[in-house]
Structures are given as structure tokens and as C-alpha cells.
Amino acid sequence: MLSVTKRCGMFLTLAFLVVSINGQIAGGLGETTRTDLGGNNYIAGTVFSPAGSPIQTRMRVKLVSMTRGEIVTTTDDRGQFIFSGVGAGEYTVAIDREKDFEPVSQTVSITRARSTVPETYNVSLRLTAKVSREAKPAVIYAEDANASKKAVELFRDAIGRSKLGDHRGAVEKLRAAIAESPRFISALNELGVQYIILGEFYTFQHSGIRSLEFT
Questions:
Q1: Which pLDDT tens digit goes with each residue over 24-61?
Q2: What is the CATH number of domain 27-126?
Q3: Is residue 134 predicted with pLDDT exceeding 70?
Q4: What residues does each domain of the chain span?
Q5: Torsions phi, psi of 106, nearest 5?
Q6: What CA–CA distance (Å, rounded) separates 215 from 209?
Q7: What is the pTM (predicted TM-score) of this model?
Q8: What's the per-residue H, E or C state across 98-161?
Q9: Where are the alpha helices (DSSP H) in the chain?
Q10: What is the b/e burial string over 98-123, where b = at least 16 CB atoms within 10 angstroms of the residue's CB?
Q11: Strands 60-65 and 69-74: what pairing?
């Protein structure tokens, strides 16, 4: 029969081991997806919104390996996820089926299949909002038919830059288009719009370039 001292010592040892293992898992995450990939490692991660805060909705995350293909899990309401039972090898953690966000992935390399204390490999995935690559249709004016090919190309470039949030770049392209074809009304009007977005419509009004739609 074990003495009280020995039993207490065993209990403290086991308790320390449990705390050490759980402490390796970021955030004490309770929801795990078992992979059965021949190891005792964890891959734990957090998905962040474009603004930089953890997402607060469930999102599909997949673990891709050469031996087992894809294993899918979902984030919890704090944007966290974890794969357990991961063995040695190279893995890709990816999000690629969200209609509002660009695909994002991160590679994880694990050298040891098993350790006395399971190891946790942490990843962070930050989402980027999808940007439409289609230029918005412009209003067609009769005068636009006289715009040069170069002016039209500059106008289209400006629309593309605006879609990507580069409004200053859009202004530069539009001014170049207007310099090329001064009666290019669509470019004149769009230039006014870009200055409004930049909060500089006063500058536009006193620039000597006047939109026919705004006058």
C-alpha cells in the first residue's frame, strides 16, 4: 500500500503533466479536430478579420497533408481552431472557400511525430476582403466617342485603381486622361467623384478642371 506522501507526490506529478499539456494549447481551446496523423502534436490557430480582430463567427478551415489529403474543421466563436494527433511532416492550413474573402494559407513543418509533452504549432490567418476585378460600367456620353484610345485606357486604369482603394492614383490617371482628351466627360465626372472620396472637392473646384455634371 502506498504511503500518503508517495500518493500525494504521484498526484502532483500527474496534475503538473495535465497542466503542461493543456498549457501548450493556445487559449485553452476546448474544441479539437482529431486527425489521426500518427503523432501527438497540435496545430492551433486563430483567424483574424481584415481589421485585425479575431472573427466571431464559425469559418471552415482545412489542414492539407500529403498522406491524408484534406481534414476540415471550423473555428469557434472566438475565431480559434485546433487539429490534434498531428504527426511529422509538412502541412498547409488554409481558408479558401469564403465568398467574401481572398484565399489565405500558412505552411507548418513538424519534425517529430511524438514528444513526451505534446507540442503545439501556432498559426495566425488574417483575412483579406475580396475586391471585384470588374470595372464598373461608365455612363456613356456622345462626347466620349471622341476620346483618344490612350485617354480611354487611362480612364479604365483609373477605375481599376479606385476599385482597389487607390483613389490618389485614380486621380492622377484621370487627370492624364483629361489632358489627353479635354472633352472626355466620363473622366471629368469620375475625377470629381474621386476628389469627393478624398475629401478634396474644394481642390477640384479650384483646379481649373470642372466636371460638366457638377456645374
A1: 444 445 578 888 888 999 999 999 998 888 999 999 99
A2: 2.60.40.10
A3: no
A4: 27-126, 142-205
A5: -145, 140
A6: 11
A7: 0.50
A8: CCCECCEEEEEEECCCCCCCCCEEEEEEECCECCCCCCCCCCCCHHHHHCCHHHHHHHHHHHHH
A9: 4-23, 149-163, 167-180, 185-197, 201-205
A10: eeebeebebebebeeeeeeebbbbeb
A11: antiparallel
Contact assessment for residue 91 and residue 43, using Cβ atoms and an 8 Å cutoff = yes
Q: Which CATH number fits domain 142-205: 1.25.40, 1.20.120, 1.10.10, 3.90.1570?
A: 1.25.40
The owner of cell 513526451 is 116
Strand (E) or helix (H) holding 67: none
- CA angle 194/199/202 to nearest 5° reads 90
| Residue corresponding to grid cell 519534425 | 111
Convert 151-185 to b/e letters by CB count within 10 Å (16 or more is b).
bbebbebbbbbbeeeebebbbebbbbbbebbeebb
Q: Which residues, other chains included, contact 40 with Cβ-Cβ below 8 Å and sequence gap of 6+?
A: 85, 113, 114, 115, 118
